[in-house]
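Researcher: Re-running this chain for the archive, since the previous output was lost when a drive failed. Same request as before.
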Amino acid sequence: MLTNNSEMTGYGDHQRIAEERFGLKALSGNYTEIGAALGASAYRISDPADAATAIHKGIAEVEAGGVVLLEFITSASRHRISSAEVFG
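Model: Regenerated structure tokens:
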């Protein structure tokens, strides 16, 4: 299972200028195509209604000895959590 939200993670304000000037966080790619090229059964899931079916199918294929990649397309996370909130 891979979550693809088209962003790199966790830079917060540490690399704000690089994000603004160069789009540092922007990330794209079709990991389903990469997984298939490497021999896995690969599925791209963009509709939440298809998630449970894809997971069950993936589990069945793995239990039968296969290699599976499930790429879930999600929206980018827009919230920030400060270290003070995490560590008190």
